Amino acid sequence: MKYSLLILIATVLLQACGSKTKSSASETAAPVEGLVTLTDAQFKNAAIEMIKLQQQQISSILKLNGKIDVPPQNIVSISVPMGGYLKSTKLLPGLHVKKGEVIAVIEDQQYIQLQQDYLTAKAKLPFLENEYNRQKELNESKASSDKNFQQAEAEFRSQKVLISALAEKLKLAGIAISRLDESNITRSIQVYSPIDGYVSAVNVNIGKYVAPTDVLFELINPTDIHLALTVFEKDVNKLFIGQKLVTYTNNDPSNKHACEILLIGKDLNNERNTEVHCHFEAYDKTLIPGTYMNAEVEVKNKTAWVVPEDAVVRFENKHYVFVKKTDKQFELTEVQTGISEKGLTEILNGDALQQKEIVGKGAYTVLMSLKNKTED
C-alpha cells in the first residue's frame, strides 16, 4: 500500500514539473525582433507607399572656412627713401585715395642740400666741357701734353656722372629736375599714392621724423582681393583649378558670393592642411581683408543607391529602413547612410537591398508601431 502511494506521488510530481517547464518555455519565447505586422486599419491610416532603391547621380557639399586676403602685389607700404619730418597728411585708416593723389608732405634740410649739389654740379659742367674740348685741340696739335688732356677728360666725364647720380636721387625723392633752378629750391617733397585703394594703416603723426626704413602708411588695392580657404589633407584631392564655389559671412549667410579656385597649395603644414586661393567673380566693396568666410564646394558627382529621406528612420542611434516581408508585415533592416541632398539619402550598403520593396512614405508610423509592440 505504501509502495503504491509513493508511485502515485512521484507520477503527480513529474507531470507538474513537465507542465511548468512547458509553461516557462512558452513565457520566455521572445517575439521575432524588428518584425512588425500592421492591421488593416493601421496600414490604411499610415498611407504607406512602397518604393525600391534607385541609382542616381549625386554630389556632396564640402564645407570649408577661411578669410579674405589680399595678394602681396596689391598691398603697398609707403616710405620716404631719404627720410625727413612729416609736415602734413590727411590720411586716416579706411580713407579712399586715388592714384597720383598727394598723401603726405615731408620736409628736411637734406632736400635743400641735394638740390644745391645738383645745381652746382650742373653749373660747373659747361666749364669742364669747354676745358675738355680745349685740351683736346691742344693735344691734337701737340701743344699740350697727354696728361693734361686726360685729366680734363676725366674731370668732365666725372662731372657728368655726378650730375646723373644727383638727378636720380632727386627723382627718388620726388623732386622734378625739369622745373628745378636756382630760384625754385624747395625744402619739402610731396608723397603721392601709387594706387587706387584705401588706407589700411597710418603709422606716423605730424612733426615726427621718419627714417628711410620706416613705413608711413599702408595702402590696399581691393579690386583683386581673394579668398584663402583652409583645406584638410583628406579633402584636397576633391578640389581642382577652375572649380566653382559659393561663400558667405557668418553675419549674412543669405548673401552668397560666387568664387573660382585659382590655386591649390602643394604642401601641408603641421596641422595637415593647406591653403586654397579663390577669386571672387564679382567685386563687393563690403568685403574687406581679414573677414572670415564660410564656403561650400560641390564636389564631383557619383552614382549611388538612394531612397527618399522619409524612408530612413533613426532608432537607437542607428539608421534603418523597413523591408516588406508580406503584404502588411515589415522587417526593420539596418543601413549605412551617406550623402543627403535634394530630399534623397545615399544607402552605402544598397547592393544588399536591390529589388526589395521598402517603406517610403509612412516609415515613421511603422517605427512607432514597432516601439509600441516592444513596450507591450
From TrEMBL:
Pfam families linked: CzcB_C
DNA repair among keywords: no
One GO biological process term: copper ion export
Alphabetical UniProt keywords: Transport
Residues in CzcB-like C-terminal circularly permuted SH3-like domain copies: 306-364
Origin: domain of life: Bacteria
Gene3D superfamilies for this protein: 2.40.30.170, 2.40.420.20, 2.40.50.100, Helix hairpin bin
Record flagged with keyword Cytoplasm: no
GO MF annotation terms: transmembrane transporter activity
Example of a GO cellular component annotation carried by this entry: membrane
Family: Belongs to the membrane fusion protein (MFP) (TC 8.A.1) family.
Protein name: Efflux RND transporter periplasmic adaptor subunit
